[in-house]
Amino acid sequence: xxxxxxxxxxxxxxxxxxxxxxxxxxxxxxxxxxxxxxxxxxxxxxxxxxxxxxxxxxxxxxxxxxxxxxxxxxxxxxxxxxxxxxxxxxxxxxxxxxxxxxxxxxxxxxxxxxxxxxxxxxxxxxxxxxxxxxxxxxxxxxxxxxxxxxxxxxxxxxxxxxxxxxxxxxxxxxxxxxxxxxxxxxxxxxxxxxxxxxxxxxxxxxxxxxxxxxxxxxxxxxxxxxxxxxxxxxxxxxxxxxxxxxxxxxxxxxxxxxxxxxxxxxxxxxxxxxxxxxxxxxxxxxxxxxxxxxxxxxxxxxxxxxxxxxxxxxxxxxxxxxxxxxxxxxxxxxxxxxxxxxxxxxxxxxxxxxxxxxxxxxxxx
Length: 365
Hints:
By secondary structure, the protein is an alpha+beta fold. The protein is 27% helix and 31% strand.
């Protein structure tokens, strides 16, 4: 089912929670809404569900205007952050509940309950009650209840936030598998950008009730269109410096030819580089190791370079001989830098293009 939000505005008194937002989700697409707390992502999801009243705007399901349709008639499935499963009911009764509300015949309802429970991996738990389940099992029951009536749209509101890291990774993969298998249009609200990057077809980054970035996970990671997108997307977060600040010695030295080409505009520029693009070795600007964080597969190295605090993500073998106080060369490929306007926070491109050695090559014509 195609979902189209047109000109959505939601106000709570003088507060504008969502500001003239328009967004289209293609049939079978999984779109993730990410952003800081209070940015409007859950309010937007509530509008699609029918829980939130809009000050302005329309909602279309396959070109059908459902803006005024009650939530129970929208053919949606909704998974809440806190699961919201009934403690006095068994797993089977919880999953069956939407079918009873729809007055589906008992035999057909039992068939769908059994089928959906198997689909999400709780087929052997139908007689249990919620207090007998783990957090991951309760989440699967909530998902089964949302899926049992085969909704046209699946809405997920921070569905994994109450799970530990291992279960979160496992369950998000299961959600993606089910979503692809059922071909269901899905909107996921999450504060975890790694979750959005891992399973979404597209990611919409929200701030102050508006969408400030919308693209595929790969594109929004490789070329963030705003400073907020750059800060929110990526783990560990991007190294960012305002060139007008006194702690920007590293980018000023590393980007000297570019800054010369920028001229006076350099003072109004913010630059960033992702930790995985920072290289350590015998060459480069001299840096001093301050701290090493072992992340398992990688090591996050905290450095001081030319008065700047720099984070580098490195292979354990590369940093095996390093420790606090060790000197090391630090370098970044010129093409790995990101540039933003300090006033508008919008992405900008440096003048000309950067050769591998950092020389600015002027474009012809």
